[in-house]
Design goal:
Length: 317
């Protein structure tokens, strides 16, 4: 947590940064604006030390969020998870109100309505070495980009997945509840997916059970039941995942969280994955096994988008 004096100084710096941003806008310049530590800077001014431990070791945490009509969807849940991830690795993060204000300013400075927002907190600059105490202050970054919607054909026809050979990190090695900057495990699986012409890869855990995608949670319909790997499978507790489970149960769909083998997934009647940006993405094929984009998937996606509208309306009241 930041000390009060440091926080007051940071607010003054923020105002100065916003003034500089306005000058660029008035001159008609086109650039991105980024909130770095305690002030707004242009993309050309946003610099992080090569000695930052986030760069050197992947030591840090992050969150991605999506805005609809200038409203950050499920903001409180994302900020809570950011703080939790940081606590797991004993990393200081600014208070929620500071983070929320930094996000608001970043969106406003960039003139964004529907956007992708990323918050990153790294260990910060320090001498070489793994000791977290080498870095006295974390590095805090917020950037936002216009959200580019995925092709409607993906939602209509589904996308292709593969079962990856790369296994998910064991829970007792890297806790999946930490949304960390060290993403190499997922990147290796993503490379497999690209090499095999797929959009996403399904990763298994060390026991051979379905875990999650590289950036997503996996759901499938089987015998009229919506099934998804439980947290015991070694997965990130996705915010979209939790919402979909809640929507399904509230609307009469039985949900089962558990440990499932690849053959369970391949015997499903419908498959989809979830994350913040994709919402609910239908799957048309896993390896060579085809699937239809079924009624349950379409129904849940419709419910999800209705929930977004309700959230935005409630926020504006």
């Amino acid at each position: 947590m930041r000390r009060a004096g440091a926080r007051d100084a940071s607010i003054a710096k923020k105002k100065s940064g916003v003034h500089n941003v306005r000058q660029h806008i008035e001159r008609g310049e086109t650039m991105a604006y980024i909130f770095l530590d305690n002030r707004m800077v242009t993309d050309s001014e946003a610099r992080i030390s090569v000695f930052d431990h986030g760069f050197l070791y992947g030591d840090g945490v992050y969150e991605t969020m999506r805005t609809y009509d200038q409203v950050v969807f499920m903001r409180e849940q994302h900020l809570e998870r950011l703080s939790r991830s940081a606590a797991f690795i004993r990393l200081k993060v600014p208070p929620d109100d500071f983070v929320a204000e930094a996000v608001r300013q970043t969106l406003a400075a960039n003139g964004l309505t529907d956007a992708y927002v990323r918050i990153t907190v790294s260990r910060g600059k320090g001498p070489l070495g793994l000791d977290p105490d080498l870095c006295p202050e974390p590095t805090f970054v917020v950037f936002a980009q216009e959200f580019r919607r995925y092709p409607e054909s993906w939602y209509r026809d589904g996308v292709r997945l593969v079962l990856a050979g790369t296994r998910r990190n064991p829970v007792d090695a890297v806790n999946p509840r930490i949304k960390s900057l060290n993403f190499l495990n997922n990147i290796l699986a993503k490379i497999e997916a690209k090499d095999r012409g797929a959009l996403e890869a399904v990763m298994l855990n060390e026991g051979g059970y379905i875990a999650e995608g590289t950036i997503s949670n996996i759901f499938f319909m089987q015998e009229g039941i919506l099934r998804t790997p439980s947290l015991d499978a070694g997965i990130l507790d996705g915010i979209t995942r939790a919402l979909v489970i809640s929507l399904a149960r509230r609307n009469g769909i039985r949900v089962e969280e558990g440990l499932f083998l690849p053959e369970d997934l391949l015997q499903a009647t419908e498959v989809f994955y979830t994350n913040t940006t994709s919402e609910i993405m239908p799957v048309s094929m896993i390896d060579q096994r085809p699937f239809v984009v079924g009624e349950a998937t379409r129904f849940l996606h419709r419910l999800y988008r209705e929930e977004v509208v309700k959230y935005v309306e409630a926020f504006r009241r």
